[in-house]
Design goal:
It is a single chain. This protein is an alpha/beta fold. It has twelve helices and eight strands. Strand 5, helix 11 and strand 6 form a beta-alpha-beta unit. The longest helix is centred in the N-terminal third of the chain and has 32 residues. The relative contact order is 0.09. The chain binds magnesium ion. The site of magnesium ion has 7 residues, from loops.
Length: about 325
Amino acid sequence: MVETGDNPASASGSDLPRSFSFGPDDDTIESGRRSPNNSLLGSRNASRDSLLSSQRDSVYGSRYGFGNAYIQVDDLGIYLSSIAVTALMAVMATIGIILFTLVVTLAVMLGKCQQPPVPNTCRSFALNAELNNLQGWLLPKECENYVAEYVELGQYYTDYKVALDAARDYLSTLSAGPDHRDLIVLDIDETALSNIPYYQANNYGTDPWNEKIWNTWVNNASAPALEPMLSLYSDLQAQNWSFAFITGRPEEQRNVTAQNLLSAGYAGWSALVLRSPEETGLTAVEYKTAHRKELEAQGFRIWSSMGDQWSDITVESVGSRTFKLPNPMYYIY
Ligand SMILES: [Mg+2]
């Protein structure tokens, strides 16, 4: 028999036996909702139910949704009704399907945009053209993308600049006399002026030559300067060097050619030579060599010739060192 009168708790007025104590119930103690009339376990559950009920309905909780589909948020957590859970899963599944569809669509589009690989023959063609093995050949149609990449991704400009850096280094070892007779001979197209805008619009030289379209472009006189050449030209002119242009353009394009050179930034040349009607039957080598000799006969001392074609820089009277500039689009001899 238990002597409840010996229990200090009873003596203190509490009816809870110490041997059943679960330790302090912080939630209920703090909330002050312990029930004095039930067993301890019952009291604890009732207290928690009461707490949940009162707190979910308290001013500190919020319920969102419609009818039986709702989300309740209070300081004990977030609660979803079964209908809300079903709706949420349906939304997540829909979003997953949409994202998967987008990824697949994007992959298909990227695959379609991908350029076909450049055939090795295009690189071989470019190399052998620069080695002067392919005189008179037209760029193969399947190499248009190769040229487009070469030009538009910057390799063409870099190759061009490296060639002119070498020219600048060489000419810096020489000194032009005060009589302005020390001469550098330049070609014009793809040497002093760039026709890249024209070739970009005309399949990079893979189409058969169309004189009418070309002449329309030339007569616009809008070809930009190749900047490394314009820079070299200006710097060397300031050091008493003289320049002569010899171009395969016909004499009838003299005015637009001079206009284009001036608008691009070139000025003060010593000679501008264009092909006369009587020279139509000459090869480029014959025509250009004849005019270099003519310049020498006038007292000029040719130290260097520069051009994008071998015909600009070969045979006689080309100077002590020549510089071949890149041209991925056409080859003339
Ligand atoms: Mg040229």
